[in-house]
Amino acid sequence: MHIQDIFAQHRTTFSFEFFPPKTDAAGEELFTTIAALQTLQPSFVSVTYGAGGSTRDRTHDLVVRIERETNLTAVSHLTCVCHSRDEMTAILERYAASGIENVLALGGDPPKNSAHDREKDAFRYANELVDFIRSRPGPNGRGFGVGVAGFPEGHPGCPNRLQEMDHLKRKIDAGADYICTQLFFDNRDLYDFRERCDLAGIKVPIIAGIMPVTTKAGMVRMAELAAGARIPAKLLKAVSRCTDDAAVARVGISWATEQCADLLHNSVRGIHFYTLNKSDATRQIYQNLGVESSVALRAG
C-alpha cells in the first residue's frame, strides 16, 4: 500500500524496522520474527540499508519477500552514499518492477574503514535524493511514497537547530510524505521537535522512533547508533540497579511502554519500533499497553 493511503486510513500508524541479515540462515530466522510480528498488524515495516549500500541486494530481497509472502507493506531504505545516478535509477526501476511503493530517503553513512569521496556521489544530501525519487515512476503508474529522517535531539552534523530545520524543510519541500525520527528516550524532545516543525511550516506526519533498552551493552550501542542519543539520568539509574540483562529488559520495556502511552495521549501521528530484528520487546510493549494488535491502538 502507498504510504499516502496508509496515512489517510490510519489516524495513528505503528511500524517496525528490521535490518537485512548477513547470512541466509539469519535471513530465515529474521523472517520467522517478521511472521510473528505480523500478528500485531503494523501499518508498515521498513528495512534498513547498510553503509555505502553494502547490503543493497539483501535489502531489496528482504523487502520483496515481505511484499510477496506476508500481508505487510514494506518500506525500503535508500541512501545517497556510494551511488551514481545510473545506480539509483536501476535500484528504483527494480523496486518499481517488484511492486515496492515506498522508500525512506537518507543521506547515509560512509563505509567504515575505507576512504570515500562524497564528491563522487550523485546526491550529497537527502533532499536531492527525495527530488530524484519523486521524478521516477513507481509501480502501478504512481510515484513512490517517500519518507525522510528527523532528529528530536538535533542532527549530529548540524549543531545550529535553526539551520537544521531549514535543511529538514528542504527535504519536505522536495516531496517527502512523512518524517520518521531517530530514537529518543525523553518525549519532551519529540514534542519540542514537533513544535519546531510546525513553526518551520512542516506539516507532514511525524512518526516517533522508539527503541527499548534490553541490555546494558545494547544501551551503549544505541547511543552510538543514534550519534549520541541522550539517555535520561532516571533511566541510567534504573538500569544501573539491575543485576542481569533480564532485569535490564524489564526496565527498558517498562520505560518504552510509558513513552508510547504518553505519545498516544499526546496525539502522536505514528510510533516506529526499532526492533533490532527481535520480536519479544515489541510484543511485550503491546501487552503492557493492554492490546493484542495495532488495530486496538488505532481505535483508541
If you had to describe this structure to a student in words, what would you say it looks like?
This protein has 300 residues and is an alpha/beta fold. The protein has 12 helices and 8 strands. The protein has helices at residues 3-9, 24-37, 56-69, 85-97, 126-135, 161-173, 187-199, 216-225, 233-240, 245-265, 280-288, 294-299, and strands at 13-18, 44-47, 74-79, 102-106, 145-150, 178-183, 206-210, 270-274. α5 (126-135) packs parallel to α6 and α10 (245-265) packs across α11 (280-288). The longest helix has 21 residues, at 245-265. The relative contact order is 0.14.
Summarize the structure.
This protein is 46% helix and 14% strand. It is of the alpha/beta class and 300 residues long.
Distance between the termini: 23 Å
Q: Tell me what portion of residues adopts beta-strand conformation.
A: 5-15%
Number of helices: 12
How would you characterize the largest beta sheet?
Answer: 8 strands, parallel, barrel
**Helical content (DSSP H or I, runs of 4+):** 40-55%
Derived from helix and strand composition plus strand pairing, the structural class reads: alpha/beta
In oligomeric terms, what are we looking at? single chain
Q: State the total count of DSSP E strands.
A: 8
- What order do the strands of the largest sheet run in, or round the barrel if closed? 1-2-3-4-5-6-7-8
Low-confidence stretches: none
Over the alpha carbons, how many angstroms does the gyration radius reach? 18 Å
Q: Average pLDDT, to the nearest integer? A: 91
Task: Output the helix-strand order.
Answer: HEHEHEHEHEHEHEHHHEHH
What best-fitting shape do the alpha-carbon axes yield? globular
